[in-house]
């Protein structure tokens, strides 16, 4: 299922603002890659270029290449909607659809893309909720509104919703920053389980979290206010956190700045 | 904060250094409170007065005859007669108006919020919606009279009245819907896009359902508003004392024009009918408002 992502020479802009500059990296399949770095360094922007969510914002554009197993996501006749079915995303704040039940939330991606058969939907909903470690908590109230769950449960619901469309890659934009420590732990355990089936990319402000969940870590930084964000280095998480090659990385992870 | 950082170290007794509400603030609080209540009373007095006058004058003829008979063959001096023809007319005209205006208005608002993106066309549309809001209702009637009846040669009909009311209804529904769509968090749109759902499906199945309670309320309030319009109807549906259930053919009555007609007659029997007509119109509009609130609450409990 999982696919490798190869990014080369990627620039992203918001109108006239150059947000990230010349990023190249390889993201390995069936592993967790964490993006760390100070606020405003372009981690989230870069993440959003990986499923073409960046261009949803008016005036935003991207230059460069993102290859998903040799297929360029920014190729001339690639449909961004199709890209997002292959590269799923979980957001910072849990955002279940407020008008839908738990069941409908998970089935939303399939239903809105034309899957109608009830038995198939039932199977996928159960499988996805199990995959998101939420099934036991909600199996008796699938018809209750998704907004009635706790924050941590809502976030797992959003993960279930994302994996229900069976993507190859799962992008997570600070998925735990709005959650308490116990819910965070539940999500981290879930990430560890999901990585056997997906390519996972996670943006986090929490360096311990990056150290706990990721196999590889990428450090982003900005040269100064108004300057574009850039990739400083990427490598095995154990190496980044013990013997980083760049001085800036070391200063950041030891808490000397950021 | 300052009490927490007192260098003395002793924790001061609560109320001691924090202090009680000063007498001056208490007095100001009272004065402002009194002013607010006064303003409320001032706003309510005319409303109660109108309701009281209409009720006391209108209850007399609020009987079965009023609801089951038209004015066909009933003279101004005669007792009896009813507003059946006018109630039917009003309901049909408002239903037709809603059927035309709501889709146009909701789609316009969807364009403005979801697709326009502040572009030149969106700004122009927004501007003209504002202009339409300011159109006096008689001008809407004159416009339909000039275009539909005089230029295109159609006769007086309930439908012509609906066209005039449509012009008045569209801008209010556009504005209400626009505000509701803007309240839908962007997170939800992004969540939907991230599932690989195209934009139009996102609008249909995520954005509109989320905004639905507010849109329903807005539509109902607009319906209630156009229901009481008189001027545009005078020029488009004309008058009739008989029941005409076909809104596309021939003059039709409506409650506002019924009131206008009856109140213009110097006989007490007619004036009584006018008051009852007014009462029925108010009750009808109230019913719609209540219905709107109930509907909105129903949708909200579903979503919670």
Automatic annotation (TrEMBL), chain A:
InterPro entries with a match to the protein in the record: AAA+_ATPase, ABC_transporter-like_ATP-bd, ABC_transporter-like_CS, P-loop_NTPase, PstB-like
Domain of life per record: Bacteria
GO MF terms, alphabetically ordered: ATP binding; ATP hydrolysis activity; phosphate transmembrane transporter activity
Keywords: ATP-binding, Nucleotide-binding, Translocase, Transport
CDD domains (UniProt xref): ABC_PstB_phosphate_transporter (cd03260)
GO annotation terms (biological process): phosphate ion transmembrane transport
SMART domains (alphabetical): AAA
One cellular component (GO) term of this entry: membrane
Gene3D superfamilies: P-loop containing nucleotide triphosphate hydrolases
Sequence ranges assigned to domain ABC transporter in this UniProt record: 5-247
PROSITE patterns documented for this protein: ABC_TRANSPORTER_1, ABC_TRANSPORTER_2
PANTHER family: ABC TRANSPORTER I FAMILY MEMBER 17 (PTHR43423)
Protein name per the record: Phosphate import ATP-binding protein PstB
Origin species: Actinomadura rubrobrunea
Source lineage: Bacteria, Bacillati, Actinomycetota, Actinomycetes, Streptosporangiales
TrEMBL record, chain B:
Record bears the keyword Cell membrane: yes
Lipid bilayer topology: Multi-pass membrane protein
Entry-linked InterPro entries: MetI-like, MetI-like_sf, Phosphate_PstA, Phosphate_transprt_permease
GO molecular function, one term: phosphate transmembrane transporter activity
Pfam entry (one): BPD_transp_1
Alphabetic keyword roster: Cell membrane, Membrane, Phosphate transport, Transmembrane, Transmembrane helix, Transport
SUPFAM superfamilies (alphabetical): MetI-like
Annotated Gene Ontology cellular component terms: plasma membrane
Swiss-Prot/TrEMBL GO biological process terms: phosphate ion transmembrane transport
Segments passing through the bilayer: 34-55, 94-113, 125-150, 156-174, 203-224, 274-296
Domain ABC transmembrane type-1: 87-292
PROSITE patterns per record: ABC_TM1
Keyword set includes Transport: yes
Coarse class of the protein's main subcellular location: membrane
NCBIfam families attached to this UniProt entry: 3a0107s02c
Role according to the record: Part of the binding-protein-dependent transport system for phosphate; probably responsible for the translocation of the substrate across the membrane.
UniProt family annotation: Belongs to the binding-protein-dependent transport system permease family. CysTW subfamily.
Protein's name in the database: Phosphate transport system permease protein PstA
Organism for this UniProt entry: Actinomadura rubrobrunea
